[in-house]
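#structure-requests
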Amino acid sequence: MAGVKQTDISPVLVTGATGRIGRLVVDRLLDAGAPVRALVRRPEAAATLPGAVEVFTGDLTVPESLGPALDGAGAVFLVWTAPPDTAAAVVGQLAARVRRVTFLSSPHRTPHPFFQQPNPMARLHAGIERLIADTRLGSTIIRPGMLASNSLAWWAPAIRAGEVVRWPCAAAEAAPVDDRDVADVAARTLRQDAHTGGDYVLTGPESLTHAAQVAVIGDALERRIAFEEMTPGEFRQHLEGTAPRPAVEMLLAAWRAAVGRPAYVTTTVADVLGTAPRTFRRWAGDHAAAFTGGS
């Protein structure tokens, strides 16, 4: 984007820097030549970060611990990974020390039934957005839809074991967005003033059912993967003890609402980056090894 005003060269602080999106944002910022800081709760977590990253230990549940990481920083990539109790104090810390924030939120404002189910995480995100809006921070909100990488948690264990993939709501449609596209957009918004005030819903380029997504993964592996639909009760039992019950019920409600309805698809990735978003087919091909036991 020639001619777009860049932010200053002050360091960018990335929270959630070892997570799925945060880790990619770190790489994108380094590739762009930006000085990067990472906030980690445990010093040993920094072992997975590039040596060029300046690491700070801090915790969102202890707002005063963020001071050293924020001093001298210009922007923050905020991934909220804590209970809501300290959100106001953390946003206050940001507003007192940095110019801008990009917040990783959710598409809870999107007028599609998939995103309109009761959702505790959406309520948390909406509350943090209000806190940010009440400050003088320059802010960008990014709202990824369903992440393509969810497939790794959902279906990779069965596929690696050569088993039938069993999942509810086979005909529920989504437009999985590649994590790399989310990170590319986030890094761009952290470096360019033109995105201040942006509210970006990020999706992949096509609507695919659960069954179709599994078939695409099978194409990447050059083999057919059997898919069977499980009942909601079986799904609850499948996730017993591994996921909070409200989250399970939210997913089931969202998927039921999405059966037979094309997914909500945006052009935001292309609009921001100037390049087409990665397809789920490309994502599956690039991550085929994860479904075969490779790295």
